[in-house]
Design goal:
By secondary structure, the protein is an alpha+beta fold. It has 8 helices and 6 strands; from the N terminus they run H-H-E-H-H-H-E-E-E-H-E-H-E-H. Helices cover about 40% and strands about 15% of the residues. The longest helix has 22 residues. The structure holds 3-iodo-tyrosine.
Amino acid sequence: MSQDGFIPLEWQAVPVSEMERRSFEIYIEASKRRTTRHFSKREVSKNIIEKAILTAGTAPNGAHLQPWTWVAISNQELKQKIRDAAEIEEAKTYQDRMPEAWKEVLDPLGTDAVKTHLTDAPWVVVLFRQSKRKRENGEWGPTYYSTESCGIAAGMFVSAIHRVGLTTLTHTPSPMGFLSEILDRPKHEVAMLVMPVGYPSDGAEVPDIERKSLEDIAIFFE
Ligand code: IYR
């Protein structure tokens, strides 16, 4: 007998040897993911974007409020509008707002204020974090851990796109207020990430960098 409001967990047991195999396979697949700024204009079906958003929407989240709105844009004029506005803000960021200590770590990654990927990629997905929710009594109430929730969901989106065989980039124009205006989102929704999605272009490049080793990122107490 289940507790009221609960149902039995559906759980498929996996043999330990198979788990070991999968853990390695998942790591190898994930390690092949790279962030490139070079996107092809080749089309991607809306169905794939829908499934990636649905996958992201399975993320664990604060009080199951699912505090996210995903805006997916394939309309070329709208992508251009977003790019134009992002480039205005980013030009100010790179020229005036970015302190030396920040430039120092960004320089090797080759990022700049030119956001070609926002118009080249067939889709641009903007993640809005819902900072408030409408309560049953009609009043506004808070959401909980919405930044963590959206961060986890964004990671799942990135992973889904990679597993599909496409690529995405987590672009963070700052400030992001222009996105609410262009995409007509309400005040309680705060833009968090802009993710062009598509195929890498022919000859796409990535920075020649390495990931930290397990010893560098993890500590075990056994
Ligand atoms: N938001 C800018 C700058 C930028 C910041 C970090 I931290 C990066 O890892 C990459 C870029 C941009 O999106 O270009």
